[in-house]
Design brief:
Elements lengths: L20 H14 L7 H19 L5 E2 L9 E2 L1 H20 L1
Antiparallel strand pairs: 1-2
Length: 100
Amino acid sequence: MSRGPFVLGESLLDVGLLASDDDAARHDELRGILTPPEVTSDRRRSNDTRDAMHIGTAIRYGAQGVRHAGQERAPSACTPEDARNFVLRLKARSEHRNDG
């Protein structure tokens, strides 16, 4: 099992590792992508935090792919970088629709 950086309130006490500066920066970037500042739902923020933790852990260990279950338009398997880019595209599309 790959162990990811510990996130207070989300990680199991005996599983998480102390985060490096790179881990913390990566997590902050991923959270910024997944959760816009205007989202106020605690459940959504928590789910997005866990998603960021999983993607960040995959990137940390150089995973060759991330398996996605759920959204039809998402690729079923992709690299962590592709997953990040996919989320950025969806976010940009959503923001464009909300602007106009």
